[in-house]
Amino acid sequence: MSSQDDSIDMDDLFDGDDELFGDEDDPLFADGDANSLKLDDDTQQDGEVPPDAWKILIVDDEPEIHKVTTLALDGVTFQGDPIYYLHAYSAKQAKEVLNKNEDIAMILLDVVMEEDDSGLKFVQYVRQEIKNSFVRIVLRTGQPGQSPEESVIVDYDINDYKSKVELTDTKLFSSVITALRSYRDLRIIEENTKQLKIFSDAAYQFVPVEFLQRLKKDSLIDIRLGDFIQMPMSILFCDIRSFTTLSETMTPRENFNFLNSYLHKMEPVIQQHNGFIDKYLGDGIMALFDNADHATKASLAMIKELEVFNKEQKEKGLIPIDIGCGVNSGVVALGTVGGYKRMDGTVISNAVNLAARVESLTKAYGVNILISESTYLQLTDEQRKYSRFLDMVSVKGKNQLTNIFEVFSADEESIRDKKYQSRNVVSGALMAIHSGDFLEAKQTLLQCLKENPGDLTLQIFLDRCDLFLRCPDTNSDLLGKSLDELKTSFSKKPINERTEQFFNKISDTRLKWLDGEFVAGSNSLLQYMKEHAEAIFGDEEVKMVNINYPHYSTHKYDHDFFKKRLLLLEEMRDSITETVFTVLLLSQAVDWFFNHIAIRDMQMETHFQTSS
């Protein structure tokens, strides 16, 4: 149908029809012989439907009504396009015609036909059964008292209701043009809505709808530069191993085809585990999850999906690939950055940086999945079953130590089971490395490797033992190094008695650890850390509230997480070795010094002093 302005060809519209119509205000439908104006076609007028014609369905059991209606509207056009009439003489016929012509714009409908309420039942069929809300329906009745106008208009979804005796040629013309205009506008709205949805769906390929949900925005138009929210999340980084070398063997088109086929496999896996992709980083993926369990399960599922992808690669004669996944959990700031003409959604926090660092270590340790301690502590018992403490590392870009764990559920079954059986023995060997007993560690690792040759990570630790044995002066005590850095840092700043006492307690526990007194050292430190939290956290929070401290929420989050972490460690104590428990406890204490006491407490004290 054309998009020209409304136009009506009324020239000589009623010439020669004076006897039929009389004055323009006379009713069109007077009593007469029902068979005097029989149409040639029982269902529709003759001829092909003109292109862009507006279709009107006339439903009435009196044939002369069809004739009079079409004659009255003969020559009428709308927006320069003709009107095409379809005819039905019962509600049953009307259904058949409507089902074959979904683009009918208007229905002129008799109320009383084969039954007294046939027309009303047909209205219900149109609106409720086939859900056609576009067609405009004008009810016409010769017995207005039988179906009262007010109740019909209220109870039925119609657009007009006329008694046949009051429907003059002028009123019929007005009803038709009004209905066609309304139908046209509804179709325009529908088309615009479809286009808007297409645009919206395309936009959400660049800005995930999950991103909007977490910012509590209904749509993209609600986003403003600088919008952000702080919340705990788990961050997953995934990267293809040696992709640069691989890409050099492919043309640019092959590179894009390869990457898209790989990412096409991985995207649904992340969505199925309640995560969403924040961004693609070349061959890498950064995804966000609301909890650690979902992120870890997604990593495992991605490894399984990689097997399918590699099988397809081999069938095409292409080289299979390997990937590494790293997961970390913590508080992130999720929001928008950029300029007013170009902005992007992103997450900012140390937790994001650490997740990227953890992923980068997967290649160094020869494993597919590594998670941080904060993620490990939040896993369910089922998820922790096939995971093991792997190492204590000093991650680039961070001062304090980070404990990393391997998740090996996706390994080949025989390798997985042997890793599970030897996980505590291997952890003990790693602790021996950190305590300087390299010979004992080497002997233990050699035995484990003999029993499980597929555990390639053990060879990496054996190489480390050989290095330390060849170079006895090499310091493997990363925890001791961190404590020395702390001591140097605090020697340049005034510290209170409680802080000094806390530091000394950590040092004593480390010495007991080196002497093999794991239980005594960890029990003493655990009790002290509980008392530390009980003694100062509550008072600090009250003081911060009283002076309206601007960093209260972040400071309190640290307090809450400190206590939660201690509780989780206690709950896990029976399922891990005492050596690993001691290392995790010591790491938490050192982390508390680096990230809270040395930063947040100092910041708070400075604010207290300037505010008093």
List the main descriptive attributes of the protein structure presented here.
612 residues, alpha/beta, eight-stranded mixed β-sheet, six-stranded mixed β-sheet, 21 helices, 14 strands, 16% strand, elongated, disordered N terminus
Q: What would a concise description of this structure say?
A:
The chain has 612 residues and is of the alpha/beta class. It is 53% helix and 16% strand.
Notes on the structure:
With 612 residues, the protein is α/β, with parallel strands linked by helices. Helix content is 53%, strand content 16%. The chain contains 21 helices and 14 strands. The strands form 2 sheets. Strands 7, 8, 9, 10, 11, 12, 13 and 14 form an 8-stranded mixed beta sheet that branches. Helix 18 packs antiparallel against helix 21. The longest helix has 35 residues. It is elongated, with a radius of gyration of 39 Å. 31% of the residues are buried.
Identify the quaternary structure here: single chain
Molecular shape: elongated
Distance linking N and C termini: 77 Å
Mean pLDDT: 83
Proportion in helices? 40-55%
> In percent, how much strand structure appears in the residues?
15-25%
What is the tally of beta strands? Answer: 14
Largest sheet: 8 strands, mixed
Helix and strand content put the structural class at: alpha/beta
Low-confidence stretches: 2-24, 30-46
Number of alpha- plus pi-helical segments = 21
Rg calc: 39 Å
